[in-house]
C-alpha cells in the first residue's frame, strides 16, 4: 500500500470512529508529512475522544496504526492522531511541569519520582530534562507503571553503581 493509500485508510478509520462516538459535526483532516500520516480531529466537546490524560486518544492512535499494518504487506508509515490540539497542549504542560520539578530537584538535592506515564510522555520529560543543567532523568519500573525519576546531575550513576 502506498503512503497515500495508507493515509486514506487511516482517515476513513478515524472518521468512522469519530462518527460512532457521536461527533457528526467534527472534522477530520489527514495529511502526509515526510514518512508519517497525521490525522487531526477538530470540533466541539471532544473530551470523550481524548480520555483521561489522553488514554483514549492513544488507543485510537494505536488502533489506527494496527489497521494500516494489517491491510498492507510492506512496512507502514508512522501514524499520529490528534484531537483538538491535545498533543501540543499536553507537551507544553509536561515541559512546564518538568521545568518546575527540575528546579525543585536542583534546589533541594532530592530526587523526584513522577507518576507513571506513556512512552511518548516519558520522551518529552527526558528531552526537557536534557536541556536543563544540573538535573538528569531515568526511567524506572515496567509498563504500564513505568515512570521517570529526576535527580541532581551525577547521582543516577552513583545510585546504580551502589
Description of the structure:
- The protein is α+β, with helices and mostly antiparallel strands and 162 residues long.
- The chain has two domains: 3-84, 2-Layer Sandwich (GMP Synthetase, Chain A, domain 3); 89-161, R3H-like domain (Ribosomal Protein S8, Chain: A, domain 1), CATH 3.30.1370.
- 50% of the residues lie in helices and 21% in strands.
- It contains six helices and six strands.
- It has helices at 3-20, 47-50, 55-71, 86-108, 119-130, 155-161, and strands spanning 27-33, 36-42, 78-83, 112-113, 135-140, 147-152.
- The strands form two sheets. Strands 1-2-3 form a three-stranded mixed beta sheet. A three-stranded antiparallel beta sheet has the order 4-6-5.
- β1 (27-33) and β2 (36-42) form a beta hairpin.
What's the arrangement of secondary structure elements?
Elements: H1 3-20, E1 27-33, E2 36-42, H2 47-50, H3 55-71, E3 78-83, H4 86-108, E4 112-113, H5 119-130, E5 135-140, E6 147-152, H6 155-161
Parallel strand pairs: 2-3
Antiparallel strand pairs: 1-2, 4-6, 5-6
Helix pairs in contact: 1-3, 4-5
Summarize the structure.
This protein has about 160 residues and is α+β, with helices and mostly antiparallel strands. Helix content is about 50%, strand content about 20%.
Amino acid at each position: 500500500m502506498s503512503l497515500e493509500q495508507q493515509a486514506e485508510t487511516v482517515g476513513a478509520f478515524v472518521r468512522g470512529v469519530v462518527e460512532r462516538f457521536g461527533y457528526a459535526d467534527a472534522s477530520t483532516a489527514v495529511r502526509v508529512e515526510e514518512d508519517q500520516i497525521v490525522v487531526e480531529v477538530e470540533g466541539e466537546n471532544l473530551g470523550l475522544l481524548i480520555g483521561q490524560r489522553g488514554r483514549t486518544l492513544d488507543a485510537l492512535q494505536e488502533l489506527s496504526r494496527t489497521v494500516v499494518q494489517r491491510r498492507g504487506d510492506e512496512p507502514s508509515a508512522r501514524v499520529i492522531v490528534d484531537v483538538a490540539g491535545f498533543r501540543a497542549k499536553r507537551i507544553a504542560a509536561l515541559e512546564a511541569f518538568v521545568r518546575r520539578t527540575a528546579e525543585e530537584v536542583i534546589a533541594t538535592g532530592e530526587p523526584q519520582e513522577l507518576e507513571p506515564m506513556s512512552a511518548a510522555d516519558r520522551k518529552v520529560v527526558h528531552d526537557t530534562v536534557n536541556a536543563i543543567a544540573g538535573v538528569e532523568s531515568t526511567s524506572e519500573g515496567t509498563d504500564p507503571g513505568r515512570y521517570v525519576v529526576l535527580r541532581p546531575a551525577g547521582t543516577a550513576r552513583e545510585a546504580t553503581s551502589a
